[in-house]
């Protein structure tokens, strides 16, 4: 069965939503407070509460990207 355009968009958004939630949970395990942004923030999907954690977050995301994508 072929997915409709709407079903495909919903699937993509659900995957995105779940990945963001998972990443926030992973950051919190490492002591980094993070929250979801709202209103389609042009600054991204995750708010890092403490600016001093930004470099650690970038490193964590880079390492995850390498692990997942090789």
Describe the 3D structure.
The protein has 2 helices and 2 strands, in the order αββα. The protein is mainly α. The protein has one domain (5-69). It has a two-stranded antiparallel ribbon. The longest helix is centred in the first third of the chain and has 25 residues, at 5-29. It is globular, with a radius of gyration of 14 Å.
Quick synopsis:
The protein is mainly α and 70 residues long. The protein has one domain (5-69). The chain is built from two helices and two strands, in the order H-E-E-H.
Keywords:
70 residues; mainly alpha; 2 helices; 2 strands
The pLDDT mean sits at 93
* Strand/helix succession: HEEH
Q: What fraction, in percent, of the residue positions are helical? A: 55-70%
Reported for the largest beta sheet, the result is: 2 strands, antiparallel
Tell me the number of helical segments per DSSP (H or I, 4 or more residues long): 2
Number of DSSP E strands? 2
For the termini, the CA-CA separation is 32 Å
Mass-distribution shape: globular
Low-confidence sequence ranges: none
Give me the Rg, rounded. 14 Å
Domains, number: 1
The largest sheet has its strands arranged as 1-2
Strand content: 5-15%
**Which class best fits the helix and strand makeup?**
mainly alpha
């Amino acid at each position: 069965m072929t997915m409709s355009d709407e079903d495909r968009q919903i699937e993509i958004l659900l995957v995105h939503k779940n990945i963001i939630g998972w990443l926030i949970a992973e950051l919190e395990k490492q002591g980094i407070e993070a929250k979801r942004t709202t209103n389609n923030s042009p600054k991204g999907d995750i708010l890092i509460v403490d600016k001093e954690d930004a470099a650690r977050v970038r490193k964590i995301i880079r390492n995850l990207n390498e692990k997942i994508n090789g």
